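Quick one: structure tokens for this chain, please?
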Amino acid sequence: MNAKPRLGVFKLASCDGCQLTLLGCEDALLALAERVEIAHFPEASSRTDAHGTFDVALVEGSVSAPFQLDELRSIRARSKRLVTIGACATAGGVQALRNGRDVREFIETVYASPEYISTLDASTPVSAHVAVDYELRGCPIDKQQLLEVITALLVGRRPEIRDESVCLECKRKGIVCVLVKRDEPCLGPVTHGGCDALCPTFDRGCYGCFGPKERAPTSALAARFARDGMVPVELVRRFRGITGGAEAFRTESDRHE
């Protein structure tokens, strides 16, 4: 009898929200557990096995401390497929806001005993350190996309995830563009879809949770924001948010700083 494929779920620097998305799959997670050995998933069970090899490893969180870098390299060496899940793992997360600043000053301001804190100067995505087989974006990720990626990798096919911007999700839902309608700042034109246009659905501009699209025209969008009266400091904040560590958003924010 063939052994079940082994799945491991690992956490670096993150809030655990993307792991909770997997738990939120409920009945689908139970069906998955019948076909896969969920060997390591501390968020779900204290009975885990982080050793040995994994057919698929899901990694949540950014690399923010030296020990996390060592752990990540070990996970990569023992995994056939490594999938990063969420904005922290794919773009450095909110914690990447500290990049380029005096981290030691932050530590001495926040912590009563800063000598106990061991951290890196920057919060970086997993792909900056090891090879990644698939990136699943979002804050948090979409559970249907997660199930699709796990299933596809386990059966040996390419995941069927739409490669499109948030704008196309708005079009399918019949949402009138908030940027055109009310001059509401919206990162939808330069952001990966996957959230089902959550913020525009409630008449709000996209915050870029799913990260920049490939070849995203950030300069053109920033110019539109500026024409609508957005000052440079707000342009920096707009592109330096949840996925501000992603190259396209980081580069655009740096232009206005």
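The longest strand covers residues 54-60.
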